[in-house]
Design a protein that fits this description.
The complex is a heterodimer. Chain A is mainly α. Chain A has 16 helices and no strands. Chain A is 74% helix and 0% strand. The longest helix of chain B is centred in the first third of the chain and has 32 residues. Classes of the chains: A mainly alpha, B mainly alpha. The interface between A and B is large, with 86 and 95 residues.
Chain lengths: 320, 275
């Protein structure tokens, strides 16, 4: 606080020194426009729109290229769906839904994501409630672990899981099970963080009121606390799905062979070698499946909260 | 969960301090701490401080550069949307959240395609006569890698910053203006100090993962000229019999990243106490 008090005279002095002569303060001249303290933030606005264009336009181009009629990944050659469904006059092994390799990878992607989502989210909710009940130093440690696993590079988790399964748990063969266990371990921190934030904002009052009215602790959790947590749980479902279906780091080390590599790993492997628009189709498919889950989430969310607030504002609240 | 998270780390430590099978050259983890040897650790440590030093320094430079660019752009965008978003805030937010749902691979893939020698970036540049002939962006250009890192991680920085800047009480900013400060000094003296916790948090979220990033680099360059620490890890995983090396590098990175993490935890604890 003391710093602000000290700083104030200095700010005023600077301002007095900067007051321009009256003529220059007219907002018509370029200099006056620049000095007008109430002008609209055009520069920031331009920067923001440019950022948005920079961040999203390349993706739109990549989606368009998945419908390319030629072999090129960089130049548009006309519209076709041959990279998705194949084409009679064209070698069908390259198309996303036709090639056995890509098709198997697609199924593996969906299987891993749905399984991870339905295991990690309930587990995470239980952890979050557990941590918030726990007394003593344990929650702080658990909290640190959650945060740490959230921010450390995923490759650390990937490698330690790989060594874990190849040297200690030798009976778990690399493949779907190993992938699933590590994905759940990594993804569980999402629901924990989101649900804990929600728990903190709910407070203990509702639950106490429920127990006062004669509910058992289990009933209080099941019939009062959980419905209050539904929005947070939904957001967790969507985020875990989106993150799992895109994951290629952990999963790549733990896929025992080409047969258990999901689509994301295939995309990564192909991106380093020969690219065809089928890879764009694969990436677009991942994007659309995430979008479907997200829209489903938004729809259910509206049903639950009966549309009190805008979806993006709410989503942002959870992500930040 | 704690078991699943800590046990793998224990295996890593055991392999790092363990021995190597003399016949197959495969690592033999030693699980009893009292039998741990530092023989292979010392041998590999030699690499960490010797041969790998240029890579470590390069990683540091790339990460610092990319983080700085990220922060500059992210702060401007978050600040604009939080303060001047107005009626369009919902639209802005949807567009800012969109990258979260677009796979990282997809976003990198689109740049790989744009930056091809015959891609659209080069055709625009040659069309505008900025460069006489197409540039091979993907052949180990450090600029491409750094910008790629920025592109990959910036969404994770904008949202936390936005979330915080949006909650700043506008009356404090107005007070600054009322007291005679111009927009610039109001920003420097009021908004910036207020948003320090958010800046710290977003730095942690963005910088720590960058240290282990190998895929951005592999996709956008793949040349040994731009190798980063994450590539060392990835390479040691792909080579057989490099278990101990991978374990030691992982250990090194994890311990290294603990430092900023602990600093961050201490800082947040401090601000919470002051509140």
């Amino acid at each position: 606080m003391s710093e602000t008090v000290r700083a104030r005279p200095e700010v005023e002095r600077r301002e007095e020194a900067a007051v321009p002569p009256v003529a220059a303060r007219s907002t018509r001249t370029p200099l006056g426009w620049w000095r007008n303290p109430w002008r609209r933030p055009h520069i920031l606005a331009t920067a923001t729109w440019m950022y948005l264009a920079w961040s999203l336009l390349p993706v739109l181009i990549a989606i368009a290229i998945s419908f390319n009629s030629g072999r090129s990944n960089s130049i548009w050659q006309g519209f076709s769906t041959q990279w998705w469904w194949g084409h009679p006059s064209f070698d069908p092994s390259g198309a996303l839904f036709v090639s056995p390799e890509l098709h198997a990878a697609l199924i593996q992607s969906l299987r891993l994501s749905f399984l991870t989502m339905f295991i990690a989210v309930p587990l995470g909710v239980a952890f979050a409630i557990g941590i918030s009940r726990w007394r003593g130093p344990a929650p702080a440690g658990a909290n640190f672990l959650m945060l740490f696993s959230f921010v450390i590079p995923e490759i650390i988790i990937g490698i330690s899981m790989f060594l874990f399964f190849t040297y200690l748990l030798k009976f778990v063969h690399l493949g779907t099970w190993a992938q699933l266990v590590s994905l759940v371990t990594y993804q569980v921190s999402y629901p924990v963080i989101i649900v804990r934030a929600r728990l903190l904002s709910i407070g203990k009052e509702y639950e106490e009121a429920a127990t006062d009215l004669g509910a058992s602790p289990t009933q209080a959790v099941r019939r009062v606390l959980l419905p209050l947590l539904y929005p947070a749980i939904l957001v967790s479902f969507v985020l875990v799905f989106a993150d799992t279906i895109d994951d290629f780091i952990t999963v790549r080390y733990l896929s025992g062979g080409a047969s258990t590599e999901p689509l994301s790993v295939k995309i990564y492997n192909f991106s380093r070698g020969t690219l065809t628009p089928a890879i764009n189709a694969a990436a677009t498919f991942l994007l659309f499946s995430t979008l479907v889950i997200a829209l489903l989430g938004v729809f259910l969310y509206r049903r639950i909260t009966s549309g009190q607030r805008g979806k993006s504002q709410e989503m942002a609240d959870y992500l930040t | 969960m704690v078991v699943l998270f800590l046990l793998p780390f224990y295996v890593v430590v055991s392999i790092a301090f363990g021995t190597v099978d003399p016949v197959f050259q495969s690592p033999l983890p030693v699980y009893e701490p009292w039998f741990w040897t530092s023989k292979y650790l010392a041998q590999e440590w030699h690499f960490v401080v010797g041969e790998f030093r240029p890579v470590e320094l390069r990683t540091l430079v790339y990460v610092v550069l990319a983080t700085a660019v990220c922060l500059a752009i992210a702060y401007a965008v978050a600040y604009y949307v939080a303060r001047f978003g107005g009626k369009r805030k919902g639209l802005f937010l949807t567009l800012l959240i969109a990258p979260f749902f677009i796979s990282y691979l997809m976003r990198m893939l689109s740049w790989v395609e744009l930056l091809q020698p015959n891609g659209y970036v080069n055709s625009v540049l040659t069309f505008l006569h900025i460069t006489p002939h197409p540039i091979n962006w993907l052949a180990g250009v450090p600029f491409t890698v750094v910008i790629g890192l920025v592109y990959g991680y910036i969404p994770y920085m904008i949202l936390p910053l936005y979330g915080f800047l949006d909650r700043i009480d506008q009356s404090q900013v107005e007070a600054g203006r009322d007291l005679g400060a111009n927009p610039f000094w109001t920003f420097v003296r009021v908004t910036l100090p207020l948003s320090k916790p958010a800046i710290l948090a977003s730095l942690v979220i963005v910088t720590l993962p960058m240290f282990g990033d190998y895929y951005t680099n592999n996709l956008l360059s793949g040349s040994p000229k731009t190798t980063m620490f994450g590539n060392l890890l990835d390479n040691s995983m792909e080579a057989t019999g490099q278990g101990p090396q991978a374990a030691i590098l992982v250990l090194f990175l994890a311990v290294f990243l603990m430092i900023p993490m602990l600093y961050y935890m201490r800082e947040t604890a401090k601000t919470q106490r002051n509140r």
